[in-house]
């Protein structure tokens, strides 16, 4: 017989917010525009994503990462409730799922997608990269909209898919220096081959014209999804739109990658916090 379901405390949700504020400042800043009563649940959702994403960094071998992922699968399906109760992120996430009747399948898909991170598997095609960012980013946007308005309108219009792919690709481009050092290459092999770029060219950290051309193609892919997202955003109910506010930071980041002297292996793509806050406020005003 299963024991009682985990009952999260305020400290569990506070832990999620602290984690987000420290390690994912963009999403934390965007969450400030979410109604206060719903904000802790958005924090729980993204704190879970952070916990899964950082497994690759804290394990010494892939098998240990798979064990951690299985712990999270067990927590989600109810067979690991005792352990989940002691984990603040898991307790807050499970409470959020229960309160808003969120489907668990998107969260399990996110875990499965992150398996490729453990082994550093190459991404073969743009379609494969889009599938990866759908699972790791778009699924989060879909669940966030359900928290905000209880519907899946955004998913039906494809808004979450385009938002997630654009946001995910932009994030991967920003993190390219760190990924390459660890032997992870998220630039699709098809794009690399089209420009005559070898896997080792990225590992060596040499910003050749061919490498820069390949990354230009990847930015174009992100922008194509941004354009579709922008065109469909206002078809959504107003109360669901704050779930997507972090996406408004993509274009400013992409533009930083096009400044003279940009070196994808050395240039840190970052915006001052005051500017990020202004961009988010401006978008919130336009979208409302």
pLDDT < 50 stretches: none
> How many distinct domains?
2
Distance between the termini: 48 Å
| Cα-based radius of gyration, to the nearest Å | 19 Å
Number of strands: 0
> What is the second-level CATH architecture of the largest domain?
Orthogonal Bundle
The share of residues in extended strands comes to under 5%
User: Which outline best applies?
Assistant: globular
Q: What's the helix-strand series?
A: HHHHHHHHHHHHHHHHHH
CATH topology of the largest domain: the name is Farnesyl Diphosphate Synthase
Q: What is the SS-derived class?
A: mainly alpha
Fourth-tier CATH superfamily name of the largest domain = Farnesyl Diphosphate Synthase
Mean pLDDT: 91
Helicity, in percent? 55-70%
Query: What top-tier CATH class of the largest domain fits best?
Result: Mainly Alpha
The helix tally amounts to 18
Largest sheet: none
Write the SSE topology.
Layout (H helix, E strand, L loop, with lengths): L9 H14 L1 H7 L7 H15 L1 H4 L3 H16 L3 H5 L2 H13 L4 H9 L1 H5 L6 H24 L3 H4 L2 H16 L1 H6 L7 H6 L4 H5 L5 H25 L16 H7 L16 H15 L1
Helix pairs in contact: 1-2, 1-3, 1-7, 3-7, 3-10, 5-8, 8-10, 10-12, 12-16
Give a description of the structure.
With 288 residues, the protein is mainly α. The protein folds into two domains: 8-111, Farnesyl Diphosphate Synthase (Orthogonal Bundle), CATH 1.10.600.10; 122-288, Orthogonal Bundle (Farnesyl Diphosphate Synthase), CATH 1.10.600. It has helices at residues 10-23, 25-31, 39-53, 55-58, 62-77, 81-85, 88-100, 105-113, 115-119, 126-149, 153-156, 159-174, 176-181, 189-194, 199-203, 209-233, 250-256, 273-287.
